[in-house]
Structure prediction request, 209 residues.
Amino acid sequence: VPIDPAIEPLSRYYLALALSNAGHAAAADQYDRFLRADRRSLQASQWGRELLFLDRQQGQTFQGIGDLLHRLDQPADARKAYDRAQQAGVMNISELIQRQVYTDLRLGAADRAVERVVSRIRAAEEDQAGLELATYLIDQGVDGDALAQRLRDIYLRENRPAGLALAIARMVPPEQSEALLLEHLDQKPGDGAVFEALLTSKLPKGGVG
Prediction:
């Protein structure tokens, strides 16, 4: 009986998974062999469907490779793997960006880390993960005032999106936050989320009652 051609790349994948879970460097090579395997004759095979399912998760595979390379103290190669994961697409982009930012900082590329965070906040203005990344950058020594100013420049240039106003307001001291929200409502009085944020900031810390 002929051997199903999908067995070989599938065995590479599951071997890589086992090696990765055990922390072995050889996992990266097995992942690479899995990804480079010829797919042209596999779609009609008995195991081809499972292989195609794994192929649709290539972004997660590259993310896993990046995690492994970090554990092996190879952050430069980990960054390449994470970038390939971003190109392939992943289920949770926020988790991937967290990994990329950590890697950039580990490699001393703070400017690149800032660019990633600014792009994330700009693309998903009210995403809590983006705001947490901004806080993480500041905790790691990035100039918080400069980061807030970068976001403010984008905010003004792009006609004052409400989400960006809220993001910046969470990053700056209370008096600056209040001034920003008031300024925003002066220009866009119909933005309910900004009004609610301003109202909340005025309430006593313990709430009403």
